[in-house]
Amino acid sequence: MLLVSHANLFGQTKIKDLLEKGYAQVEASEFRAALETANSIIFKDPDNFHGYGLKGVAEVRLGMLKEGMTNLTYAMNNGVKNAFVYAHRGVVYQSQEEMQKAESEFNRAIAIDDKSYRIYTLRGLFFIINLEYDKALKDFDKVVSLASNDPKSYFFRGHAHYLLDNYDEAILDEKKALKLGSKSPGSVFEVLSNCALAQNRLEDAEDYLNQMLMYDSKNGSAWSELGHIQLAKGDTSNAIRSFEKAIDIDPENELSYLWYIKYCSDQGLNQEVIELTTAALDGRTSLDHKFLGIRAGSHMEMAHFELAIVDFTQAILRKSNEPLYYINRGLCWYRTGKVNSGRKDFQSALRHCNNDPEIRRQVADAYFLAGDLANSKQLLIQLQEKGSEDPMIFSRLANIAFQTQDYENAVQLFDQAILKGAQDSIFSYCFRGHAKYELGLHDEANLDLDTLLSLEPEKTMFPEVAGILCNLGYLLDELERFEEAKEALDKGIALDSTIAYAYNNRGFARYKLGDFEGAILDFNKSIELKNDYFYWPPYNRANALKALKRYDEAIEDFNLAISYKADYAEAYNDRGETWELLGKRKLARADFEKALELNPELESARSNVARTKK
Questions:
Q1: pTM confidence score
Q2: Closest C-alpha to 278, from 292, 298, 293
Q3: Which of 56, 160, 276, 402 is exposed most, by the fewest CB atoms within 10 A?
Q4: pLDDT at position 386
Q5: Are 523 and 491 in contact (CB under 8 A)?
Q6: Percentages helix, strand, coil for the chain, rounded to the nearest 5?
Q7: What is the pLDDT of residues 552-609, one digit of tens each?
Q8: How many CB atoms lie under 10 A from the CB of residue 597?
Q9: At 257, is the pLDDT very low, low, confident or very high (cuts 50, 70, 90)?
Q10: What pLDDT is attached to residue 189?
Q11: Burial code of 439-458, b = ≥16 C-beta within 10 A, e = fewer?
């Protein structure tokens, strides 16, 4: 018996050494070796439940969660009170999103061993996943106190500080991790970059990301983030290279595509957007609808409405409860003349909006854009009747009143929109001023335009600011404020160089300011862009040519204006004056008489007829 007892004692001592070796292997992240050690213990002593505990810990760390939980539970049920066993049961519960059970296991582990910084680390990481950053920070404070020479301690605490917006503290901890020789410097530089970005230090953020990529050049997300920062700095050429690198490394990184697509979309590069979204769709499932929606939007921008309808339809098949897809497809139906299909889509959007007033207002906006003012007005009034105080509703109703030339009602509704603080106040001041001008209230109109100018609309992010500046220029022209008109139109054209009438109106302001050559250039551009009122630019250009004594060219333009608008009394009158300057009095008199016939109220024509009778 004595010999047997000595043998058992020797065996138990050896197994104890193996257990210590196994847990040392776990701490050194040598999980496969730890699993082999646990198997060796169990082979030598099948009744050693600590061996099962070690085996469960190693299996959990190797991702074998089901097998690990079985062995951990077996060890625990057989009296093993090991902090690592309970902590790793917590890890398994955490992976199963059973957060209360996970926290309970972590707490039991710490109650057994409150000196293990690794267990505090596991619980701290659990708190981060559970969005309890204050608790995580307390645990990582404890980790630092227990392992002040371990760079991971500072890395994790720095991350917690970052998540709590304590950027300066986070930076100190991450730099400490680097100083102590972090084995994961790429991760440290990522946190430093995030802190710098949060503090709007773009140069530092870019520098940290570049250092991160020195250690992890195949990190597609980092390249994508670098591109985002470079875009914010205005470094578009490098940003594009970074996005392309991100996509090359990870063709399934949605964020890379989305940022690259956003850049192309902001630049109006719709064909590039279509190509990128097509590439992004290759092999995707979860976000297919989003990329289809983006591609459809670019087709809309390019007026390829049939193609947009195809993509929106595919997006709807993948996500049938997204009201914005129905709204935009409805607009496309309207643009292709299929009004009933458009209305059906708008109704579908309303069915899927869960009575969200913002979506209902967007449907009203869609009706407005489609030219269906009656349905737009009806929806907006319904929102008012349901008690909505959204100032944008008053603004939209005011716009409808303005479009239907109900200027008095428009003024009253714009009054309410401004009073309630509508976000588009620059729009409200512009068109309230316009409505007052149409009502003959020129002094009041001037006051609204003065307020609008003081708001510096060109510095706002309002999406229709270019159109507002151009409309402002038109009104200032009409009110004979030509210097201000030209300035407003300069700004509007700088934001959108495709608005044809803006060039005509700026040309008119230049003409009135004596810049006839500049005026002619603007009238040329307006004609090139096909102004909706075809007769205005050639008529105005004719008068500029006339002022430069280029009479034959002026006659050609007056002829062109009259060919577009046969009852254009002013064009006949001004052509008559040009004939007169060329010494062709009979032609001049005929034009003056035609002008007076077309418009008996045209005083200049009456005066010219009376003068040429003598």
A1: 0.51
A2: 292
A3: 402
A4: 85
A5: no
A6: 80, 0, 20
A7: 999 999 999 999 999 999 999 999 999 999 999 999 999 999 999 999 999 999 999 9
A8: 14
A9: low
A10: 87
A11: eebeebbbebbebbbeeebb
Q: Of 310 and 155, which is predicted with more confidence?
A: 155
Cβ(461)–Cβ(444) under 8 Å? no
Kindly report, residue by residue over 271-283, the tens digit of the pLDDT.
Answer: 766 665 666 566 5
Mean pLDDT of 266-273: 66
DSSP state string for 360-395: HHHHHHHHHHTT-HHHHHHHHHHHHHTT---HHHHH
Which three-class secondary structure string do you get for 558-587? HHHHHHHCCCCHHHHHHHHHHHHHCCCHHH
| 514 to 408, 545, 548, 576: CA distances (angstroms) | 36, 12, 10, 22
Question: How is residue 459 annotated by DSSP?
Answer: G
Amino acid at 408: E
Residue 372: other Cβ atoms inside 10 A = 18
Please give the span between the terminal C-alpha atoms of the chain, in angstroms, as a whole number. Answer: 151
Q: What is the DSSP-derived secondary structure letter of residue 517?
A: H
Instruction: Give the number of other Cβ atoms within 10 Å of residue 412's Cβ.
Output: 17
Exposed (0-12), middle (13-18) or buried (19+): which is 419, by Cβ within 10 Å? Answer: exposed
Cα 110 to Cα 215: distance, rounded to the nearest angstrom: 35
What confidence tens digit (pLDDT) does each residue in 490-519 have? 998 988 888 888 999 999 999 999 999 999
Average pLDDT of the residues in 347-367 = 88
Residues in the chain: 614
Q: What span, in angstroms and rounded, lies between the C-alpha atoms of 297 and 307?
A: 10
Rounded to an integer, what distance in angstroms lies between the CA atom of residue 497 and that of residue 137? 53
Determine the Cα–Cα distance for residues 323 and 416; give it in Å rounded to an integer: 29
